[in-house]
Amino acid sequence: MSVLLSDAAGITGRLESALSGLAVFRTAGRQGFTREVFSESYRDSRQWVADQMKAAGLEVRRDEAGNLIGRLPGRNPAAPPLVTGSHTDTVDGGGRFDGVVGVLGALAAVQLLRESGTVLARDLLVVDFLGEESNPFGLSCLGSRALAGELTKADLARTDYSGRTLAAAYTDFGVDPSTLLGFGGWTGRRRPHAYLELHIEQGPTLEARGLPIGIVTAITGIERLVASFTGTPDHAGTRPMDDRRDAMVAAAEAVLAIRSEGCGAPEHGVATVTRLENASRSPNVVPSLVRLYGEVRSIDESWLWGTRRRLAAEIAARAAEYDVEADLSWSTDNAVVRASDSVQDLAGEAASAAGIDWMPIPSGATHDAVHMAALAPMGMIFVPSAGGKSHCPEEFTATDQIAAGVRVLADTLVRLDSHHFSVRPHAIQRSTP
Length: 433
Ligand code: HGY
Ligand code: MN
Ligand code: MN
Description:
By secondary structure, the chain is an alpha/beta fold. It is 34% helix and 21% strand. It binds (2S)-amino(hydroxy)ethanoic acid and manganese (II) ion (MN) (2 copies).
């Protein structure tokens, strides 16, 4: 029997208008629904999201890390809170559902709780985390990392392609970097009771299986690579083909090596090169310095850890064929993180009690949930993505599909509210490949 008696259908109208309302905030001149972190359109959207949280009856504040946090008071505000939410920043040329479904869906869940007269024992915090998407500074999940106490001084010194530091971007956005590191977030005694995030699947599985709900088992680890290829600059019109040290050709070989690494990966492993940069702007010079940006992902830690070693050997060998030096620098964007078994069980019970079919599913996308998992038992609920598409304007999930996710989210939150976890969460094991 579903804990929440009211039917989620009552929320579809408001979800529909909220989704269209937020989609208005997009950066002119960019494809799709672009609202990147620190951009004007993102800055303008924050007030709109805060107003939606207030309209849902939440007490709203912006924390020291720039996260928007709406509080639904529980009977016992001293108890560790329940936390749900996601992000409303997008990739360049993105869609209007990635992350958004988890924030607006959480507000719809609050509406279901209030309309059914359900008062939780604990506070419920709805969070719109700052900057979940990876950005030119090469660091994803800014807001949730800060809350998990994972943001470092070195992170603030990261620069974008123009040389601007992340600290400067925060300052321009009205977040003081000096308080950012010291505010401690939700570590220690402020750990939440549990974290649960509603999100679109961003892949084809649920739609292919005809299932409305996925309950996440694990979230992929991400290893990020910046490779520099150094050759010799030469006149592109006079230097004979067999006498060049062409950095671009070596980089092109590396693109193919990274692709075959991904193609050979165990289930759900992937590898992508998303950017090649020639240091020279001239179209008639043999490239002498080329930078490659890529990433490798998998929920199989041992395979993921082996990537660094395998690609280092493969890329060096291919670069040597063109007498080009290759220098690789890796960073772990996040380790593989497993969802809490108890949270998965409670979400499964909630879906089944509502008569909603579901399947366990790994996440090939990373989420703020990765960093919340360091603080509290974590779970995620997926709803289908049309054609499995995401990070593009065609991204789509029907409102009634979102409503089903909201219903399971709300019901699971009620179950989590009174659940006693026997084992406290593991801290994220920093993978040291
Ligand atoms: O990169 C990701 O997987 C997420 O969309 N930020
Ligand atoms: Mn997302
Ligand atoms: Mn995304």
